[in-house]
Amino acid sequence: MKFFLDTADPREIAKLAETGLVDGVTTNPSLAAKTGLDYVEALQEICKTVKGPVSAEVLATDTDGMIKEGKRFAKIAKNIAIKVPMTWDGMKACRVLSGENLMVNVTLCFSAVQALVAAKAGATFISPFIGRLDDAGQDGLTLIREIRAIYDNFDYQTQILAASIRSVPHVRDSAIAGADVATIPSDIFQKMISHPLTDKGLAAFIADAKKAGVRIRDE
Ligand code: E4P
Predict the structure, then answer these.
(1) What is the pTM of this model?
(2) Is 83 a catalytic residue?
(3) Does 202 reside within a domain?
(4) For 201-210, how does the pLDDT look when each residue is reduced to its tens digit (9 = 90+)?
(5) FRET partner for 186 with CA separation of 20 to 30 A, picked from 12, 20, 30, 157?
(6) By C-alpha distance, which of 128, 125, 109 is closest to 52?
(7) Which of 6, 181, 189 to mutate to test ligand 1, by most ligand atoms within 8 A of the CB atom?
(8) Could you tell me if the CB of 107 is within 6 A of ligand 1?
């Protein structure tokens, strides 16, 4: 499974990219607003750090406007994925942009049929928002499973990008359900390797070694 970071903050991204485990980034207008930075400048900065797909979301709601903004984003770097909304205008823009070999991430997906349409429109990524579905009393993970089954039935190459992740178990369950990518907020990314028994076990190993004078000699 690929790990993307779900943030528009270049400094946060640079810090977590040091792990070598960040395969890409997703941003959206709300995340961009939180940084207080110019969106294009932030994207330029992010693309210097992360070589995998970096999603940049259009603000236009009409096809021509989306294509224009998408092409503007695509000039920032080769690894930009243009994020368009799950609307008919968005699908038309998706067809045009993907037809020009640009990566397209279709966002705000809340149903399996929407995901089917996005795949037919040539989307590189489909972003089902599992947390927002859970918030609305539905089951986000069921949506991932449904999309996986449909894409496998027809051999669509569109990658399922689990979005709106709210917890570490969401990452686990998306992986089990067959998502290709999880886009993970920074705080959840950091928590992914925490386990109290790991901390306890490590403390015991270090203490035992110290007590017995175990050393690792230099060569
Ligand atoms: C990522 O591509 C999405 O825009 C993001 O995951 C949405 O998350 P939210 O539901 O927490 O705003």
Answers:
(1) 0.96
(2) yes
(3) no
(4) 999 999 999 9
(5) 157
(6) 125
(7) 6
(8) yes
